[in-house]
Amino acid sequence: MMQTVKGGADVCRAFIRKLKERIGENDRKVDAAVAEILLNVKNNGDAALREYAEKFDGGFPDPLELSKEDMKRISSSCDPKLVESLKRAAQNIRDFHERQKQQSWLTTQENGIILGQRVRGLAKVGLYVPGGTAAYPSSVLMNAIPAKIAGVGELIMVTPAKNGIPNPAIMAAAVVAGVDRVFLVGGAHGVAALAYGTESVPKVDKIVGPGNIYVATAKKQLYGTVDIDMIAGPSEILVLADETANPKYLAADLMSQAEHDVMASAILVTTSEKLAQETEKEIERQMETLSRKDIISKSLEQFGTILICDTMEDAVEFANELAPEHLEVCVKNPMEYIGKLDNVGSLFLGNYAPEPLGDYYAGPNHVLPTSGTARFFSPLSVDTFVKKSSFLYYTKEALIPAEEDIIRLAEAEGLTAHANSIRVRKEDHE
Asked: Which pTM value belongs to this model?
């Protein structure tokens, strides 16, 4: 069960070190296996995909790409009520992300100077979607909808299909979100196909989406060949609570993340010892009814804790140092903490904004920085799928007053050819 500790900054930092140590480095065997898969796909294309599909997925799908008609046919076997829920969630996600769009801009100055920035969607983006026991249609919505809003030219999804049959809920989400093309291939070899291109699978500019350790390692090794969204670590939730919080809700929310993985972390930080004790009792009671109670129990035993702080200021300091993926604020006046909590993936305010609300439905993205990277990374957004380029135009009259400054700066850096590029123009009009 979760440990309960009391203390200040030193205790907090010791626990943060423990969490960071759990990440570690990838298993060398995984690194080597993935590197071999990537090289095989790079050199042998579809033949390599066939080899791995027969080894891992029970056969190579024929055809490898689903038609639009097949996508709709397979999605039609999904529970109609689930499809309606996906549509409502998609609308919330779309409304939220539409506000993130940036426009290209242009400004003019004296002497005919024109400066500007062009913002446009990437040409091709690959979306990896697990399709086995870990099939997450919500991840399709969270990745695909911002990409479409950003103006991505073509959104290409890869997902494994056991014995040639893809997951109907995944297909329903793909149809709702407007995915352009779907290929029935998974694993590290599916990621490699997107990065390098094969006879069947087009090469993309960026790869997003969750996956197991082999998929995550493939994305990491391919960064630079293509861009990726982020390297995700184990899931995390931190709950800040005062004496007004409901221990029944706190217990449920902590376990909602602990069920992801035995490496997940769930932490309650509170100023109330009574609340801490009641929450622990609730965890024991509720866990017995949950299907993944063995995973939850192990996760909480290894990386769960209840930390009792003297003040909420201490709790806030701990939260900012931990920089958690998900942070719930279950206190009397949660809105006053928005400006105090600077390092967080997504913030959930109040007793009626539990983490699963963000995972599935409210609108903000659930692809979030983990392992303390919320100190400098942001959630997946429309910006994830755009690129920006600047442009500038100077007339001769505009360049003249800048020439001496540019020459001086270039020569200070020892870059005489840079200076010469300006000097030849200066000489031409002297």
From this structure: 0.92
